[in-house]
Structures are given as C-alpha cells and as structure tokens.
Amino acid sequence: MFIGDVAKRSGVSARMLRHYESLGLVRPTGRSGSGYREYSGETIRRIFHIESLRSLGLSLRDVRRALDDPGFTPAELVDDLIRQTRDRIAAETELLRRLHRIGAAEPAGWEDVLQTVALLQALGSKSAGVRQRAALSAGEGVPVPVEALVDAVLSESEPNVAGALRWALAHMGEDGPALLAKGLDSPAAEVRERAVRSIAEIPNDEATALLQGALTHPDIVVCRCAALALGARGVADAVPTLIDMIVEEGNDVDASDALSTLAADPALADRIATGLVACLARDTIGPSARRRLTQALADIPGTTTSRALAQLSHDADRGVALTATYILKLRDAR
Predict the structure, then answer these.
(1) What is the per-residue pLDDT across 222-249, written as a single tens digit (0 to 9) for each?
(2) What is the DSSP letter of 34?
(3) Which of 70, 138, 214, 255 has a CA-to-CA distance to 228 between 20 and 30 Å?
(4) For residues 295 and 309, what is the distance between their CA atoms, to the nearest angstrom?
C-alpha cells in the first residue's frame, strides 16, 4: 500500500507519515519499482497504535518508548498524564472564570479590560498590601465583578484585607448578598464566619433577610454574628439570641450593647426587659450568668426594668443584689 492510500485509510497526512519516518516511529516495508514507499498491514496497525497513544496526550518520544521498549510499564506515565490533565483543566477553568468575570464587568473598551485584568490579578496576589489596595480600588469604582470580590473575601485570612474587601462589597451592587449566602453553607467554619460578617456590612433589605435566616444557623458563630448585626439594625428578631449570648458569655458585652440599641424603641424596651427577667428566674442559670443579665438591665429603660431591679436589689445572691442596687442609684440620679 502506497503512502497516499495509507494517509486516506489512517487519517494521518502524508506529511505526518514522513515525519514519523524521520523519527523512526514507522518505516516503509519497501519501495515500489517507481520509488514510492510501500507499507505493510503491520505498519498500518502501528500507525493506528501511534495515533491512539497520541490521543491520550503522550508525546511522540513517549509513544516510541511505549511501542519499542519491551520493559516499558505504563502505570507511572499514565499517572503523570492524569496529573498533567488535571493541571490543564484547572488552568482552563480558571481562565474561563476570569473571562466570565471580565465580561460581567461590562468593559466599554480594551482599557477597561486591561484595568479589570490587573485588578483581578492584584486580588490574587501573595502580598496582603497589594490585595488591600485592589479591594480599596474596587470600592472606589474601578470595574471588578462582584463575584470576584466575594471569592476574595471568603478566602481572605488577613483582617485588614478582609475589612477592605467587605467595605468594597458594601459599595457594590445588589448581587453581593446572594453570592455571599452560598458561603454560609460552606463546610469550612472560617468561610461561614467570613460570609456572615460580609453580609452584616451590606446595608440593604436582602442582607437583613439573610441575617434573619442565619439566626437559626447550626453554626453558633454565624448565629451570634447575625444577631449582633440585626441588633444594630433595630431588628427585634435578634433579641432571644442576644439574651442567650449574655447567658452563655459569648460576646456578652457586645450583646448587651445591641440590646441597649434595640431598647431605644419603647415598644421593644419592655420586651427586652421581660426576656432578661425571665432568664434570671430560671433555675438552670448560674450566679455569673445572673450577674451579667442584671448588668444588661442597666441600659434598658422602662418601668418593667425598674421593678425588676428593685426586686433584684434584695436577691439572695449578694453580687446580683449589689449590682441591682448600684444600677438603681444611677437611674435615680439621671
């Protein structure tokens, strides 16, 4: 069979067959009287084997080893090909993600494209200072996709950079909360905490709704962070969690401050006072928790609080009684 027939049957061009011959991968069986290369059926099978191995990503050098070395074992080479393929897929996936993000920034021209690419590269820098400057630039209006900022803040461990990223997200559009919400379901505790802290700094109704949902989150850190943020926003749903935080001594000072902020609303002041007093009456509450609850009453206005403090000033626990008495004096002096 001549080279043209082999090329048609195998799908390998005559030029490539000559290249294989120059490398010693295939050899013509002989030549015709006119000088044309002739190939046997065995050589044609070898060509098919070469193409099959090339389809797996093997170099021509590795193909030759595989076909000609009797001691060749493919396991190590296949493992290496798997690694290379995974690396290539990861690189292509990252490129695709970057292209999507550049498109999402809706660049008006190549200058915008270059600016967005530079910012994306800076967000992934090993330098915390470079990442922080990139975050600040994004917050000041340099075009960058919200998704890129969300990924950055969920993976950022350096506090100052994380703060700059949260600030930038708070100045972006409406997509931030929905993207950050996915972080609340992360298997990594640190990612869940970063997500809820970022949501807490976005001042819109969608973020508030997500924080309200986070009050029942199984991760207590997420739950408490959401409660503190909701307290600052004047959302009454946070009251039970904030009281529990005081009982359990989990950010209890911040929780007391949040209750004080909420109690500025007269409609909530009595509800908060009633909740604190109800906790004080539980048999399961220890002495230190009762003192913290009593201290929390200090900034809660209203007659319910005053009556509770008057009763607590005679409490069997001397620490509680002294605390209540001191608070009453301060309230009388106002």
Answers:
(1) 999 999 999 999 999 999 999 999 999 8
(2) T
(3) 138
(4) 10
The three-point CA angle 91-94-95 to 5° equals: 85
In degrees rounded to 5, what are phi and psi of residue 178? Answer: -65, -40
**Distance (Å, rounded) from C-alpha 300 to C-alpha 306?**
9
Q: Which two tokens stand for residue 291?
A: 């003192």
For 241, the token pair is: 């969690």
SS3 245: helix
Phi and psi torsions of 28, nearest 5°: -60, 145
Question: Cα(285)–Cα(331) distance, rounded to whole angstroms?
Answer: 26
DSSP characters for 190-204? HHHHHHHHHHHT--S
| Beta strands in the chain, from DSSP E residues, in sequence order | 30-31, 37-38
Evaluate if residue 182 carries a pLDDT over 80: yes
The answer to whether the CB of 308 falls within 8 A of the CB of 273 is yes
- Average confidence score pLDDT of the chain: 86
- Amino acid identity of residue 104, one-letter, is A
Question: Can you give the length of the chain in residues?
Answer: 334
| CA 48/CA 327 separation, integer angstroms | 92
The string over 52-62, giving b where at least 16 C-beta atoms fall within 10 Å of a residue's C-beta and e elsewhere, is ebeeeebeeeb
Between CA 37 and CA 35 the distance in angstroms is 7
For residue 159, the model assigns a pLDDT of: 93
Q: Which residues pair with 30 in a beta bridge?
A: 38
- Residues of the chain with pLDDT > 90, as a percent, come to 49
Residue 195's Cβ-side half-sphere holds a number of Cα atoms within 13 Å equal to 26
For helices 220-232 and 205-214, the axis angle rounded to 10 degrees is 140
Tens of pLDDT, residue by residue over 44-81, are: 888 888 888 888 888 888 888 888 877 777 777 778 77
Cα–Cα separations (whole angstroms), residue 207 to 174, 186, 242, 282: 9, 18, 19, 34
Residue 2: helix, strand or coil by DSSP? strand
